[in-house]
């Protein structure tokens, strides 16, 4: 049987460039190449010749958990939210605990043996581990069937608040205790969602995640070099922005970088990636426009290979009365991606794409080079103490704000196409103290606050 299209002669890259210049009346290939903030040159088209050597799928799963985040202030109210989420299609719950919590009330009627359950703990963790272990025993649950995990990322807290929970040595010892809890699904969870929300571009974000994780690995290595407790896996939690293809490539590059880092320590550990949609470009007033951004961010997450996905409600930065609608829509966006777009039917959709494969390789290479500069200064904590990381991020923040002010970065509902009839009250979360944060978050509110001149609504 004759191969399809064999009667057509192949077209070389130079022929395409000549055709481009002819059709565009003298504008050549190089004039259409532009420089991204990451320092990577983006070409007008890519061909098979651009593919990295031995390009192959980066991951082999095709489905993901629909996650819901729940801030636990009142156990009964949080339990109600969790049950509503599960009945609405969620398959993963993430509880944020800021105080001692009554787990019996929080988890009432929730069959945790059938879902993924994560706990973000910001207080000394030993008491929580004992309480969770007691709950499991009382409920006569089989630990082998549970998908529980405890996020006690003391480094993330240090970056966000400028303080350790107790002190560096004690906190790192506690991390080791958490990692060795037998019912823990992921022995180590890294909360790296902060970095995208600071305004850092993908290269810096990847370098920071790698350096953040490596700080723990170096600690464990110095403690004896036994990484057997990581056999169940590590989870990295990242935020996803609106640069559709770059965010897909970022996740693929992250998985490759973590795998490479594991090989240097001779670690065999599964890698899980949890994604959350970014706060960076949320419109605080014309909030329904956020549905557009969070949908593309969710698509980038899924195509990039996330294992868990948390879509923020469209009113995350406001005091809108549409709380129930917003939380339901956040779940339904993911359900549509599964049930109507069938994105859970294919493994690594971006594999083989000339552009995505090339961008994945370029991001990974540049990020690893930047990661090495942090290590040359003594590692993640040392680079923070020397203000190296803060200086880089602040420069990128300033550039991002400038682009938004000039309209070079279009944010619908923030600096263009505003709804003059929007009466939403902007809500500033005063409970989150960022005064001592080592890397200041650049939220949608602070980004919008920097934009003084906006264009009128286009009808």
Structural features, described:
By secondary structure, the protein is of the alpha/beta class. The protein starts with 12 loop residues before the first helix and ends in a 10-residue tail after the last helix. The chain contains 15 helices and ten strands. It is globular, with a radius of gyration of 23 Å. It has a domain of 297 residues: TIM Barrel (Alpha-Beta Barrel), CATH 3.20.20.240. 40% of the residues are buried. Strands 6-5-4-3-10-9-8-7 form an eight-stranded parallel sheet. The chain has a two-stranded antiparallel sheet with strand order 1-2.
Short structural description:
The chain has 459 residues and is an alpha/beta fold. It has a domain at 65-361: TIM Barrel (Alpha-Beta Barrel). It contains 15 helices and ten strands.
* E-strand count: 10
Q: Label the overall shape.
A: globular
CATH class of the domain at 65-361: Alpha Beta
CATH superfamily of the domain at 65-361: Methylmalonyl-CoA mutase
- The largest beta-sheet arranges its strands as 6-5-4-3-10-9-8-7
Spatial gap, N to C terminus: 56 Å
- Uncertain stretches: 427-433, 453-459
CATH topology of the domain at 65-361: TIM Barrel
Fraction of residues in helix: 40-55%
What can be said about the biggest beta sheet?
8 strands, parallel
Strand percentage lies at 5-15%
Number of helices: 15
Radius of gyration equals: 23 Å
Mean pLDDT across every amino acid position: 89
User: Helix-strand pattern, N to C?
Assistant: HEEEHEHEHEHHEHHEHEHEHHHHH
Assign the CATH architecture of the domain at 65-361: Alpha-Beta Barrel
Helix and strand content put the structural class at alpha/beta
